Every structure is written in structure tokens, then in C-alpha cells.
Amino acid sequence: MRQKMMDGATRFRSPALVLLDVGAWAVALGPATMIRLQISEGDVQYVQLALLIATAGLLQTAATALPIMGDKQFRIGSTFDAVRVIWGWALVVPLLALANYLVLNRPVTTLAFLAAVPLTLLLMLGIRLIWSVMQQLRLQARGAPRTNVIVFGAGLGAEQIIRSMQFDVRSELRPVAMLDDSPDRARRTYHGVTVQGTRKDIAAVARRYNAEQFLIAIPSANSSVIRELSDLAEAAGLDVRVLPSTSELLGLLDVGDIREPTEADLLGREEVNVDLDAISHYITGKRVLVTGAGGSIGSELCRQLFHLAPSELMMLDRDETALHGVQLSIEGKALLDTPDLLVADIRDGERINEIFADRKPEVIFHTAALKHLTLLENHPQEGVKTNIFGTNNLLEAARAHGVARFVNVSTDKAADPTSVLGATKLVAERLTARMAQTTGLPYVSVRFGNVLGSRGSVLPTFKQQIKNGGPLTVTHPDVTRYFMTIPEAVRLVLQAGAIGEKGEIMILDMGEPVKIAHLAEELIKLSGKKIDIQYTGLRPGEKMDEILTASSETGSVRGHARVTHTNGSADLDVTVVVGTALADVIDVASIRARLAPSVVNR
Q1: pLDDT score at 334
Q2: How far apart, in whole angstroms, are the C-alpha atoms of residue 6 and residue 383?
Q3: CB of 226 within 8 A of CB of 136?
Q4: Which end of the chain, N or C, is less packed with Cβ atoms under 10 Å?
């Protein structure tokens, strides 16, 4: 996450600024009292007056530090800063009045007190205004060349970032115009910067103001909006920058948040809202076990589960290095000496049963799998051992030891499968549905497509190919895949676990499919390099376009707008698929023959 670089002079809670606030009370209370008493020929109670001023200082300092005042570092002189000053002042005034009249025998007369109170507020706000103006003059005096920026979006994010570009001494950017597609925001002005049109006017406004950069100042913008705006801006010769997404933001925006768009911005920035109460209900205080905890999905799942406060989070993987990594990411240390880490292979039914008997998990998230399609086409027996036998071992142990909820993470390749990977994952879905029938418990499967950045997926592969100078290898110009960011997928997995009923397959809404060739082009564009794309042809078992719902399945949306429910089939010849007949087969062709009829006619 971004690094805050503000120095002490620009921090809201700067000690110097607190002292100035205390001084404002002293300047207002002292002269107001003396002038009033001199007019009425009264005696000044200097000791009591000093005590009252000291009390005002202590109250003002305490009010500034109260949790209700927030802990964000608002920029001095901003609207948010002024609101905090007014709130703090409003808290101090009644308490100071009590001290003046009931404790210190009224060293400040009523008229003097009524004059000093608003004067103090004006002094505190005036100090901040002068501070802000000095910062602006300091910035202008610097005289360094600045880049002209067009800001797209005229909402709150634009207001904050425009002010930061103008007043932050670190800024090398000059906002010259805003654009917004909403008619309601036409001619809106922030800090002297006015809306000059819509996205249709990008090129004309860029020429008019000699702009070099285009900033998409909409933290809630989804990937399709960012892609379209990026294409228009680049066509106008502008460098594109974005602000963090809503889920990434911590506090207010400043120039340090402006960055280049990433692949997640361009392909998977959709915001996912989940029902935290429903998720917490089945996680908080429960013993939760995650298989494949060191993988891309498993590790993110562990990180999100950790914050939901399970009574025990058990992370199981056969890869000790992966367990080291996930523990380090969660706890900031990885001594590998805690009981939350479990080294085990789900193929080993005896070991799995031993773990379940000892640790008694209540909720299981099963993400462990072999997932590389091409490798499993060449070594189908390995896919059978992990994706089928391993899943069955977990389900049998779950039934034997009373696991209340089981969530099997599946793949879109299980829908009308044409590959060994898809077939084995479909069997895993049906095994889960079959066990749900047996137990009557919410044992469900969650099905989704590719996740951006997962290990061995297309994105890191393309990045490495770019690093190597290319070419980028794509199977076919028209091949498409669904994409989702890892955190987004995990949030929906957690949500599906909360709302799924026994035996259901929960299908996550992945948005629109993306052409792999387009992904390659976007990554090349981001790299700034000249790299070719090489088309290699579809490999055995691959589809041109993936689907999420099989032709025989019908689904309904309920509980969450991005999760579709369909009833998982338990129609499965377990003796053929899971029994020793298949386990003992060594010949690849025989495995295909035994596996395929059990799941789908290919």
C-alpha cells in the first residue's frame, strides 16, 4: 500500500499546530478578560485566569486526540480539517464554561467569555488558512516544471486529488481541466479547475491545454470504463494514470496515490460487496481448515478468514515453502512452529483422517488441486489421485468427524468438460453433492474461472515472457476466458459458503469473458516495449470459449446478485470413479475410458 510521505509540518496532528490551537485560547481569553475588567474597573484574577487558559489547552489537546475525531491525516486548511477544528472547539466550549463558572470562581466574566469563544474559533481557522496559503506560495516559488493533467470525473475523488496536486509541495502535476459524462456536473469547478466536456472531448481539451497526462479520478470505476477511457486518452497522445480502487483506499486521496493502471484495473477491477454478517455467522468462533492453503486462492482465503476471527484457522498444504509464505503474509513472521500449519497430502486418507480426529474442524474450504490442463492431459492419473481421490478423502473424513460445512472450490472447466482437468473437477463436484445428500449438511461447490495473477496462470506467464523480450504466446486470436481478481474471487467464495444449501453448485458471476489476445496487447502496452504475439493453436482438451454453466444445468440467483445457485448432480458410479478399479489403472487411455463415461459424453 502506498507510503505516506508527509513531513511533520503537514500532518494534521502536528505538535506545532496543537500548540497554536492552545495559543489561540490564550490569546482570546486573556485580552478579552483584561479589557472587560478594565472597562468595569474590576480586578483580574491572574492565577485563576492562567488555570483556565491551561485547562482550555488541555481540553483542546484531548479533543484533538479523541477517537471520534478520526485518525486520518487531513491536509491542513482543507474542508475536513476545518470540520474537525469546529467539532473540537464545540467539545471544549461547554467543558470550559463549567470550569470557569463552577470550579475557578469565574475569572472570565460572561461578556468576556462570550467574546473569547468565537474569537478562538476564528483564530484557529485563520491559522490554518495562513498555513495553507504559505504552503501554496512555497509550491509556486519552487518554480519547477509541472505536467499538465486532465482529470476525468468530477466527484469527491476529483476534488481531493485536484487540491492535492495544487497544494502539495511534492506535486509535479498541474490540473488544467476536468471532464465528466454526467450532465449534472457540467461546468462544475474545483479549486479553479472547471469541467470542460465529456469523454468525447478528450483530444480537443488535450490540445487546448497542452496536456500530457490523463487521470481517471473515479475510485469506483470498473475495468470496462478504465479500458475505454484509456484507449481514448492514449489515442489523444496522453499518458494514463488512475487512482486506487475503492477497496484499496485508506483515508483521503493525495498525489502519492496516483499510479499507472495495472492489469487488475484493466481486466478485473469490479467491486464485490458481501454480507459480512452472514459470513461472520459461520466463520467467527469456528474451527476452520483450508486445504491448499499455500496456493493463490488458498493463501488469500486464509488472509481474509484470519480477519473474521475463527477460533482456530488451520492451514493445510503439502508444500512447506508455500505454508511459510502464507504464515509470513498473515503474521509478519514465519517460524513454522505453530499448530495452525499442517503439512499433509490430501491423497493420504489415513493422514487426513488423523488430522480431522485430532483437530476437529467445523468448516472446510477445499482449494487443493492439480489445475494445469495440459499437464493433466499427459498425466491423467495424477489428476485422478489429487482431484478425485483427495477430495473423496476429505469428504469421508468430514462425514466421519461431523464437519458442519464443506466448501469445494471448483472451476469453469467442470461445465461440460472436454479435458481431464474438467472431468476430475466435475467428479469432485458430484462427490461433494453426494456427501451432502448423505449428511444432509451444506456441503457445496463453488465454480469460477481464471483468477488474475494466480501461480502458473496466463498473467505471470505473459509478464515473464515480456521480461524475456517476447514473444507472448497465445493459443488462438479469438480464444476467450473469464477473469476475476484473487481477492474478489475469495470474497465471493466466502459469500457462497454462507448462502449455499446442501449439494448446490454456486457459480460466481465473472463478468464478460476477455480475449486472451486483448490481455496480451494490454500487457505489452503497459510494458512500453515492442513485443510480438505468437499464436500456437489450441492444445488437446482446451476450449475456444469457457462456460460457467453446463448445458444440463439451470440456475437461479438468490441471496447475492453475483452468485447463481444450481443443484449439483450426485449421479455418479462411485465404484468406477473412486474405487480401486480406477486407482489401479496405469494406462492413460484406460483412465480416459473409465473417467469420461462417468461424467460426460465427449
Answers
A1: 75
A2: 53
A3: no
A4: N
Whether omega for the bond prior to residue 361 falls within 30 degrees of 0, making it cis, is: no
For residue 73, the Cα-to-chain-centroid distance in whole angstroms is 21
H-helix or E-strand containing 555? none
C-beta of residue 495 within 8 angstroms of C-beta of residue 275: yes
CA 382 remoteness from chain centre? 35
Nearest alpha-carbon partner for 449 in 500, 504, 521, 509: 509
The answer to whether the CB of 362 falls within 8 A of the CB of 284 is no
| Cell numbers found for residue 98 | 463549567
Annotated catalytic residue, options 286, 385, 413, 543: 413
* CA gap 3, 322 in Å, rounded: 27
Q: Which phi-psi region, left, alpha or beta, contains residue 191 (left: φ > 0; alpha: ψ -120 to 50)?
A: left
Question: Do 325 and 333 touch, CB atoms closer than 8 A?
Answer: no
| Calpha distance 11→159 (Å, rounded) | 20
**CB within 8 A of 202, min separation 6: which ones?**
150, 152, 179, 214, 232, 233, 236, 238
Q: What are phi and psi of 182, to 5 degrees?
A: -80, 125
Number of separate helices (H) and strands (E) present in the chain: 22, 21
Question: Residue 337's Cα: distance from chain center in Å?
Answer: 30
- The span from the CA of 165 to the CA of 241, in Å, is 14
C-alpha cell of residue 168: 502539495
User: In whole angstroms, how far apart are CA 42 and each of 35, 37, 97?
Assistant: 10, 5, 20
Query: What is the rounded distance in angstroms from the CA atom of residue 305 to the CA atom of residue 330?
Result: 10
DSSP code at position 566: E
What amino acid occupies position 485? T
Quickly state the pLDDT bin for 46 (edges 50, 70, 90): confident
**Is 525 noted as a catalytic residue in this protein?**
no
For the segment 426-436, what is each residue's pLDDT rounded down to a tens digit? 889 989 999 99
Q: Is the pLDDT of residue 94 over 80?
A: yes
Report the candidate in 383, 385, 388 with the shortest Cα–Cα distance to residue 370. 383
Q: 251: pLDDT confidence band, cut at 50, 70 and 90?
A: low
Give the three-class secondary structure for 505: strand
Task: Report DSSP letters for 129-147, one per residue.
Answer: HHHHHHHHHHHHHH----E
Question: Within 10 Å of residue 318's Cβ, how many Cβ atoms?
Answer: 18
Whether pTM exceeds 0.70: no
The 8-class DSSP code of residue 342 comes to E
User: What pLDDT is stored for residue 246 in this prediction?
Assistant: 64
The predicted model gives 3-19 an average pLDDT of 49
DSSP class of residue 201 equals G
Q: Residue 532 burial (CB < 10 Å; 0-12/13-18/19+)?
A: exposed
Q: What is the DSSP letter of 250?
A: -
Which among 390, 391, 402, 400 is positioned nearest to 286, based on CA atoms?
Answer: 402
> What are the contacts of 85-90 at 24+ separation with CB within 8 A?
85/21, 85/121, 85/124, 85/125, 85/128, 86/121, 87/63, 88/21, 88/60, 88/63, 88/64, 89/60, 89/63, 89/120, 89/121, 89/124
The model's confidence at residue 5, banded by pLDDT at 50, 70 and 90, is very low
